[in-house]
Amino acid sequence: MTLQHAQTNSPRDRILRERAAYVIPGGMWGHQRAAALPSGYPQYFSSGKGARVTDVDGREYIDFMCAWGPVILGHLHPTVEAAVAQQSAQGVCLNGPTEHAVTLAERLVAMVTHADWALFQKNGSDAMTTCVTVARAETGRRKVLVAHGAYHGAVPWCSPSLVGVTSEDRAHLLHFTFNDTASLAQAVEAAGEDLAAIVVSAFRHDLGVPQEMPSAAFAKAARAACDYAGAALIVDDVRAGFRLNLAGSWQTHGVAADLSAFSKAIANGHALAAVTGNDRFREAASRVFVTGSFWYSGAQMAAAIATLDELSRIDGPAVMQRAGQRLRDGLDAQAAHYGFELRQSGPPAMPLVQFNGDDATATLGDAFCTEALRRGVYLHHRHNMFLGTAHTDAEIDSALDATEGAFAALAKTRPLPSGEAA
Amino acid sequence: MTLQHAQTNSPRDRILRERAAYVIPGGMWGHQRAAALPSGYPQYFSSGKGARVTDVDGREYIDFMCAWGPVILGHLHPTVEAAVAQQSAQGVCLNGPTEHAVTLAERLVAMVTHADWALFQKNGSDAMTTCVTVARAETGRRKVLVAHGAYHGAVPWCSPSLVGVTSEDRAHLLHFTFNDTASLAQAVEAAGEDLAAIVVSAFRHDLGVPQEMPSAAFAKAARAACDYAGAALIVDDVRAGFRLNLAGSWQTHGVAADLSAFSKAIANGHALAAVTGNDRFREAASRVFVTGSFWYSGAQMAAAIATLDELSRIDGPAVMQRAGQRLRDGLDAQAAHYGFELRQSGPPAMPLVQFNGDDATATLGDAFCTEALRRGVYLHHRHNMFLGTAHTDAEIDSALDATEGAFAALAKTRPLPSGEAA
After folding, report:
1. Do residue B53 and residue B170 come from a single domain?
2. Cβ separation A45–B95 shorter than 8 A
3. Closest CA of chain A from B339, distance in Å
4. What is the DSSP letter of B2?
5. Of A284, A299, A314, which residue sits at a domain end?
6. Residue B154 structural domain
């Protein structure tokens, strides 16, 4: 890897940011706002292919964000794009769904262990809101338990931000600590006879803190609490779905959800979300009114069928686990060589890489990611990253060539966490 | 028009419905659920082209629903699809937006009178929720006024259904009657110093009742009330946007919104929504956290740019107004000839056609739409319909040939509204 992107040589990105400053509040919104990243990260992109993305200034990166999750088979997977093109040539939005809606629902029911039925939406937030609405409709109760710090969407009832949100929007939320069965029991107790649902993420993937897989005891306790109370166990598989276990992420722990929300990777980047549920919640799911103008479009469902077929065919989760482990092992070896110690957490297919001993502002993590970016590798050290099946051994090894350089550069300058004496 | 679709000759639709009964609660969800339509309406579609849609059994219809709004330049408009194809060949979802995000925001700011900035989402509900959140963030207040019976989305705070919704989800909603300035003043009074926003639809397009354009007095009163109280005037242009006035639907009445929500027709069927706002709300819009996994995708924004360009080039609203008036005049003449009297309401580009003297279950409307459907014209008589620029004089005249037959059939059987003596 002789690639070395100059941070300042990004005239197109700079011009677009200047134009955006006039017509987009704050220059950009939401999770893809580059201002939240170390300087040098591009805001605007032009293309992606396989495991690579290219920014508007033509700089190519090995991509470990995969569009923050949606891309799971690599950018522009030919089978998926062919399925999209075939349906797109027939029509975009019609006066009803296409047959893909039925085929995709059948596919999910066959693939996701707990699923007896499916409904489709556009955003992960749509799917989570639908799950909660269905749980309330079936149980006739209101309280919803969520883990402290967990992300379940960007709508008022669950947004991580309280700006513009009223306290009534979250009046029936109660909190527990992920993997803490005692705190879960306390929250269940507090909800009393009004417990509609316990919401859990596939694993703890909160921003900026080490990730945690659910313990067997916690997963079983959540299931048992719902069974005892007659509440719904909702697994938020929006971020992790289809990367860890095609049967549903909590099936790995032997626990079946009542309702699951999927989105991100379901259609390899095409806009789609899904709720799956079991028979207990079927009637309620037929009574709630959830809909959207574009929710019936065929192309994204065709993309999902192709994506799930391909993930099944190649055992996608195993491929990504292996690729993620190769990256993890390589980074650990390099860190040790250069005198750093990493804290790598979460499943290998969705890794979070932090520096032990880093300061509160993650000075080391920032510097490392910036050096890697200059060498053509797009990493993130606060949000979990995403592997895809396009991360071949060769791509991982190319990325490791670059991170070797990043560690070397880091060791040379060795920025000390603030607060430590030089 | 010798076309005559046999209602029972729909084996593929029937088979799909039977399959869906197992894997989709209630067989289908939301506004495209055909069970809510007269029998004979297909549930599943295969394609669309120009002003025509084709169902899974190969029956073609002149389409007056336009996918319930999204299709405005006709199905598969070549310029729009070319723009989509060009961006889609580059990538679907990347690690940031493409330059189309900036270009589209600039286009909206140039086109929509009140707009100083724009933000993009996927659903109309996303856009409306964002408007309310921004209004609350800027004003520091909570109360939101909406018209009785108005549709603003399918999420708990505004859903037309209360199934699975808690009273707290709507704790800060207050209601007024559209076009009733006294009731608006009462609601403003009730909100007192906690008034964050008044929400109005482009016009009254509530399900199953005659449509009403806003009166000049009402539009000005809503604007004045917001000015006086320091609240936001939010125009829900999700359904009507770009069909009536490219500058924003309420500009026709000389009233500028503070915040507007657009979706449906913005990208000719491709999934996109937008919020536009003025400078007063810019800072608040930069502070709220609203986002979604697919909100940065370039292809739908490229589609929107192409759609808005084409609508500007051909003066789309004038084209649709003219086509809608041709349909309206033709239907009125046919109705008179066969001894019926229609109540046609709303703007010609978004017509609602009802039968004067019809009963509460709209027996006449049902029968007329069913007869039209059998003759290859897809109408709706409870929800407003949608014209598009693909509705040429020739298409309107073909449709009128078919409705002539539908009126003749109706006159022959003349089903009397229930409750009337035969």
Report:
1. no
2. yes
3. 31
4. -
5. A314
6. 78-314
